[in-house]
């Protein structure tokens, strides 16, 4: 699972749906794999306004990567620093969580990640 995906996931357990504290999910006991991906600047620029920057920074730091600046770039700025775009590319597209868990900060529900696939069904089935 890439952090691109993680940045879009929130806990959907019945007890969390009506709260605003169900995002971002925290990582626990993860195994990572770095998989090189082709740099695609237009994709990064287009996706930048959809990214929750703070959640992305927290997640990348949890996984041991501190390459992103604390404050995200302005998505409308055509002169975004190339180093920031390269760091964004690396964090969003090249860091893969292969095994581990994501934990809801509100209800502590655990979502398993197996073979790079997060199981997001378990919360709605159990709650």
UniProtKB/TrEMBL annotation:
One of its GO terms (biological process) is rRNA (guanine-N7)-methylation. InterPro entries: Trm112, Trm112-like. Transmembrane segments: none annotated. Signal peptide: none annotated. One of its GO terms (molecular function) is protein heterodimerization activity. It comes from the Eukaryota. CDD domains: Trm112-like (cd21089). Belongs to the TRM112 family. This is Trm112p-domain-containing protein. The lineage of its organism: Eukaryota, Fungi, Dikarya, Basidiomycota, Ustilaginomycotina.
């Amino acid at each position: 699972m890439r952090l691109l995906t993680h940045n879009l996931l929130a806990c959907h357990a019945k007890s969390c749906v009506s709260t605003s504290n169900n995002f971002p999910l925290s990582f626990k006991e993860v195994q990572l794999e770095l998989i090189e991906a082709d740099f695609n600047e237009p994709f990064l620029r287009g996706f930048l306004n959809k990214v929750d920057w703070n959640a992305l920074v927290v997640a990348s730091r949890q996984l041991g990567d501190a390459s992103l600046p604390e404050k995200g770039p302005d998505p409308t700025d055509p002169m975004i620093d190339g180093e920031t775009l390269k760091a964004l590319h690396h964090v969003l597209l090249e860091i893969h969580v292969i095994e581990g868990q994501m934990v809801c900060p509100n209800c502590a529900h655990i979502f398993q990640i197996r073979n790079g696939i997060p199981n997001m069904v378990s919360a709605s089935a159990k709650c």
